[in-house]
Sequence to fold (434 residues):
Amino acid sequence: MSTLTVTETVRCQYEDLPYPPRNPEDDRKRLPTPALDHLGYVNHHCRAGRWNPRENARVLIAGGGTGDATIFLAWQLRRTSAVVTHLDLSQASIDVARKRARVCSLNNIKWIRGSLLDLPAMDLPKFDYINSCGVLHHLEDPRAGLAALRSVLKDDGAMGLMLYAQVGRTAVYLTQDMMRRVNAGSNDSNANLRRAESILKVLPNTNWMKRSEDIINDHIRYGRSGIYDMFLHSQDRAYTAEQVHEFLADAGMKMATYIPQRRFYYRPESLIRDHDLLAEIRRQPLPRQETIMELMWGGIVKHEFWAVPAGSDTEAKLNDLENVLYYPYARLKPDLGRNLAAALAQAGNQPVTFSGDKVTVPVQPSRLSNLVFKYIDGQRTVGEILCLVRKDCSDNPTNEAVLADFAPNYNALAGLNDQLLLAHKSVAPFYQLE
Fold:
């Protein structure tokens, strides 16, 4: 089957069944906020904390579908000169996304119907950030797709990508195999869908898919479009964590990190308490460690991560004294930092539970850490906070001593769950969500 035939087949699927199904009116009540497209996360992990999207930022959603990523990105950039480009094969999906943009009064989006494989020939200016979520694994040649995206990415740009995970989708591929056998010789997509619906209704509890519905259930949430996308898609492949790293390396890219909600699951300490076993696994290359954990958990159904050009040093640094420490959801929860600082002051030696956005993280009280938390306000730089901490201490600790004491809590909040982020003082206020 040629690339054109695969592309056209995929286009027809999403013309008939835009995915995921969305009602534009729902955006009047609540906007989508996919973690992959939180620009504060992108800046912290991929742009060394120094990206200023106010200055003519260019963002591409390659395979934007019905618009979740597009709407969230355009909303974050709505008061800037940035342009958000939504590219998709399906006009029906674009129409849904455009209605959502009108509901949200967003006029900073450019709409293009087409394939991401054609990006190198489109003569578009290069992009600061590219989202391609759930698209590359539906191409006949995903490497060609990633190469096309890389060709229009700035040298200091970043990508937010999602690829299907092989282990967690085992039941999906068994069901796809069953449906290929049931529908052998049939080109009638409606009839194929009806057969899939009938079979799903009678699956016994012993069936792998039936037993996996607690971790993967798009066919339940999204109805007919979810059933077709999951079990009848014409092109679908999945990757282990090791294969994701190889896939990126082939395109001259590397992983920055996984999204915060999933990062924990790839780390050996998430499950392993045996110190000798933990040490043995940690001696393995990082991609192999992640695949071991993927196999242990069994329920990772998609890899969601940020990627940057190979050789980039992109993580914002705590020891850069011009960086600002901030809670990314502080404007939505203005008492977040004050409540944490107050709880730490009363905690003695007992850990304090911190919940910024759905994720709960333990914070360990200590004299110097407590003072750092006291002065985090989303405006002070690390250098300014250190100066205030030293004034509060009769023993006048060095900057290095304060940062060393604070580092474990910083690593728990920032390194694991992105509950605390860094941005350079010139751009910091932009990234605190309203």
